[in-house]
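User: I'm new to structure prediction. If I give you an amino acid sequence, what do you actually give back? Let's try with this one:
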Amino acid sequence: MPIDRAATLRQAEKLLRQGKLDAAIAAYASVVEDQPTDWNTANTVGDLYVRAGQPDRAAEYFARCADRLSAEGFLAKAGAVYKKILKLKPHDEHALLQAGEIATGQGLFADARSYLTTVAERRAARGDRRGAAEVRVRIGAIDPADYERRIVAARSRVDLGDVAGAVGDLKVIGWELAENGRPAEAADVLRDAALLAPDDADVRGQLVGVYVAAGDFTRAREHAATVDELKALADALELHGRRDEALEALRSAARVGRDDRDISLRLVRALVEYGDAAGAAELLAENGDGADPQLVLTVAEMQLRANCIDEGLLLLRRYLDCATDGREQVALVACNLAEQSPDTGARALEAAVDSAVARDDWRWAVAALGEFVRRAPTCIPALLRLIEICVDAGLDSEMYDAQAKLADAYNAAGAGAEARMIAEDLLERAPWDTENLQRLRRALQLANIDHPDAMIANHLSAPGPGDNAPAADEPASGVAPSVPPSPNLPPTAQPLAEPGQPRDRSQPAPPHHHGHSSQFALSRNAIDIESILREVEPPRAAAPVPSDDVEIDLSVILHEIGSGPIAAPDLGAVFAHLRDEVGRRSAGDAANADFQRALALNRAGDVDGCIAALEAAARAPALRFAAASLLGRLFKQRGMMLEAIDWFERAAQATSPAPADGHDVLFELADALESIGERVRALAVCLELQSDAGTYRDVDDRIERLTHGGAGE
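Assistant: Good question. You get back a string of structure tokens that encode the predicted 3D arrangement of the chain. For your 713 residues, that looks like this:
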């Protein structure tokens, strides 16, 4: 049955005052045995055992007292009692461990470490490796700022078989060290973690980021293994001007992510910047139809300029298959090639011309070829194709102009026989044009024809249809020409209409001659050869003749087609007016309409519709910056940070209307990256922004925070 506590305590006190120590201890002890939670009495028993010279028994009762105080939350009192135990038994592990825990809770880190270190050393001394490791783990948890002991504690988890726990602790420590501007120590810690968990992508990514931040790109490259790690490394190398290494990192990323189309296309863009057309083309071939059409066109032009004609033409056709109105861009590429390599440019233009002809857009084809031969007037393949299309389209005036240029090109190439056939045809059509005479004369000389002037005279004096019988007002016979006509020459031009009758516009009127004398009699339709030949010797520029046969000027053609004249014909103006003629809306117009519709939908609150319209508008280079930047902000407002980052990156790659707009996009991109923990990429963007814009908003503080974990963190 329970004892009377009060009476027993009075009796114990009497015994103590009577000097009966053992009896008093027994009385007090009976109270503790009856009521184990009576920590005050237990403490008294412990003190009496100390007086009695029994430290072990005293420590036993002190431990009861201290444990109870600790359980009830009286930590300060419990700590004092544990200290009493340690005075009696300095190596009492229970007291040391409990005192260490209490000291930690009180912020007395030095005392806590002292208590626990004593336990760890004693366990290690007696060969208790696991026990020592357990205590070291507890020591590492004492002070968050004591990285040295935290690292020891993390490594001690390995002795406990807790590899995952060790890796987790080391990752946290490495991140904190990097944030506090201690990259070398962070790298050491993370390297240990990587050795413990070589397949842990997070550890490897952290390690690469630390090495990149420290500028140790060699070690960063040793550990970078994933696409994201290699991309981050490439970004940093690019920022530091180490372009060759950056390109190699991108190549490695592309090899790792063979199915990652984005990294492949990024590598293509890098190869384009580096001028590696062959490598870019090879990657494009591997990407199938998913590549950016503009990128395909750029690589095609590079291949053509590198004289890889077949490869370049293959890419051009691929571009035409996927690009709306892509033939205009192909024509621009061809015209840019006109001066460097006319034949290559002509082959490139052929693809665009074929596309136009397939749609019966003859005017476009003629204008494009006309602009090309204006830049490369001696390119025979382009001129031949131009004449072919003019014939098919029934464009006589343009055809005659192209024939004249082709004859000149043949003459320039020394192909007299070919030039002669065309020049004769032109001379029959406009025999008074001294330029035609000069063309034929030059062709005959190149063909080694004796007496070219006599040949020309013979050709011009040959009777045309209807000239076999003399006219009523002419003598039945005339003076024979001094040079007999050649039976091999084609007939001359059709006879002119009689006075009062409309003249055939396909046969320009000859100039009038006044008081002309000839060495042979002229038929009604004969030509005054002597006068013409005087103009040929010496040759001089022919006066302009108001006819349909003057040289074709694309600005004149387009003035007739479009709404106004073009002062100096350039290819962009040519195509713009041709699009007006056929009444098709250009891709740029469509994109602009999509963009305006997106703005209207956004104002109306239809964000989903706005996003869809903006994605369509972003395909146009001219609107890519505006559409992509707005898409990035819309996704950011929705909390869709990955999509926002993607569109901000596209906007950053496009041409901004003003530098300030580009700076805003870079700032928002960095902010979005940092918000999802992409600190290395955010730092790279901030450094780029700082390089371009100098002090901009709080970019300096952001760089400091991202690099050294500043106060703003």
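You can read the tokens as a compact description of the fold. Here is one thing that stands out. The first helix runs from residue 5 to 17.
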